[in-house]
């Protein structure tokens, strides 16, 4: 494949949609850092301030433009204007997107249409406007943002996932068609990236019947467990692969496991999705649970409020100072609290007496068993989990 006129990325002219926030913003900043002139497009007027804050190499520029990607004429006008002004268009990142979460049975047609309009039609509009220009030039790179949810079964985000699968399909077909004309096409499939989208984003659609603030909060806690990648790190890794003209770009790389699994055994992939669905539905949209915390007590000592407070403080990252425990014990206990606080399972924590002695922890005066209790705020009840 040849695309002799294409600049990667020094001296390039690039357009990024959805650039006021998250991935689009980070891609724009990294493109500018690599020497491109970048036009940031977003429905949020703040995009102009974001562009103004991007440092550019001499002779390069970053500018912001308020645009709704669902408006084809507006987007085409912008893209043709940029190509006319600079005399070229090297890359377009069709990246704008919105989140939509909830069970399909609760989806309204209006929600479906909104997700399709922004996530899919927005990308199609970018392609329809930029591709003819790139064909005329004989070079260019179209980079569409899909998601891992375009590569694997994704219950609870069916409309979102539908659009992302479609973007993958569009990008693969166009890559083959465009190759002979010197135009490159790639699709970004991010795993979980730390951006406002993780709690719904500014334009997210919430479908379940629980209050929006709680849904945002639950979504954020849920995605935090999936180890979100820093968005700047994402931009660096993604652009490295765009530069190498990779077709399907999965970042962080470990998410490829799910993609491979889906290709290797669709049946197993669906089984995994089923398991994830059950627990995710409970965590994201199930009835509210009372806040739970963990309390540990030494053998023979009743759960006392002071120790509970110490442990609670430990859950917020402060080092515990419970005199009767060694530093090691305290560390282990605060880890247990941490684990419970984050909703994972910690059923029992029995310290190994011999090992405690072998470590010669001075502060452990005699072997003792540590019990971990689940503590429910409000009624003050403690339930023994094990020990
Ligand atoms: N963050 C993740 O973990 C993740 C994972 C997979 C895919 N993605 C995809 O990455 C892309 C960027 O998401 P993000 O995480 O940066 O979210 P984000 O909410 O931080 O950014 C999305 C941007 O798109 C803009 N936008 C929304 N609707 C628009 C419209 N109609 N016209 C123009 N701009 C519009 C928003 O104003 C916002 O600035 C999306 O397509 C998203 O689906 C994100």
Explain this structure.
There is one protein chain. The protein is an alpha/beta fold. It folds into two domains: 273 residues, NAD(P)-binding Rossmann-like Domain (Rossmann fold); 95 residues, no CATH class. α4 packs parallel to α5 and α8 packs across α9. It starts with 12 loop residues before the first strand and ends with a strand. The site of nicotinamide-adenine-dinucleotide has 31 residues, from α1 and α4.
Task: Give the % helix.
Answer: 40-55%
Bound molecules: nicotinamide-adenine-dinucleotide
What is the H-and-E element order?
EHEHEHEEHEHEEHHEHHEHHHEE
Low-confidence stretches: 290-304, 314-327, 341-387
Instruction: Characterize the main sheet.
Output: 7 strands, parallel
Q: Which quaternary structure do these chains form?
A: single chain
Strand content: 15-25%
CATH topology of the largest domain: Rossmann fold
Query: What average pLDDT do the residues reach?
Result: 81
- From the N-terminal CA to the C-terminal CA, the straight-line distance is 64 Å
